[in-house]
Input
Amino acid sequence: MRMTVLASGSKGNATVVAAGRTCVLVDAGLSCRELLRRMAATGEDPAALTAILVTHEHLDHVAGLSVLARRLGVPVFFTEPTHRAWVRMVTPKTTMSYAKWLELREQEKLRADEAAAYAPAHTLAAVAELEPAELEPESEEDSLADTKPRPDPAFLPAVEYFRAGQRFCIGEIDIDPFTIPHDAADPCGFVFHARAEGVRMAIATDLGYIPPNVNQALRNVDVLLLESNHDLEMLKDGPYPWSVKQRVLSRVGHLSNAACADFLQRDYDGGAHTIVLGHLSEQNNLPELARLAAEQAIGNRLSLLGNRLVLAAQDAPLAPIAL
Ligand SMILES: [Zn+2]
Ligand SMILES: [Zn+2]
Output
């Protein structure tokens, strides 16, 4: 089983988790082109992707989602509320004025009346089914972009739903999604279990704190990708507007180095082969600070159990972690 972190941070997140012939991408928060570039750089074959899983609908997790899913023709797994929120997000809002709408409606009615005057009844039924844009253009003007059918931005090759707390399975991997406290529609972390290898890997980023259910989910994992988002002092003194600082610090914001360290010290069972610190803020954190906090928290258990501590980055992928 392996985990390849392609990117981690507030400018884009994507991680490959693979076992046997099953290969899933968790989040697609970079452009399709960049995702494919990083997969090539780490030896991950895009054609081998079985599915894409979405943790939540924030842009740094879905920026390249629709383009990549369409390009590769793979299904996308969401919770239903996350899918709904994503569809709302990518569907352009109608900015048409009421006057313009009335005008268009009148034109449509005129066309329908004209058609009614000349066409036999069965054709009429067909015309009534058509979108206005599909009707034969009467002049050059009608064929302008205004009335052209546009591709649906929320179109995906296939959509599958999962629910937090309910195990599902993709190929050779069992997946346990768990709810995380974050300001999105229905955000989730995941534990992946490769049945054949008996290996477990977990992803938990974008969470304001670690509630008991997350604590429980992160037991007995061999590889743990955990958020270590910000240094509290750097955030407080940093350039973010007050409202954004409040959001990051809140119970549905992001996990600080201190909170991450607190978990590692008090609740972490010490059994992971590798701990990956992820979703580091570029503005409000330094890799050395995140590493130091985690190392101090794990203390001498780090060497005792042969744990490895790795820092995921925003601008470059990590080498695959294979067990
Ligand atoms: Zn994020
Ligand atoms: Zn988020």
About this structure: The longest strand covers residues 173-179. The chain is about 35% helix and 20% strand.
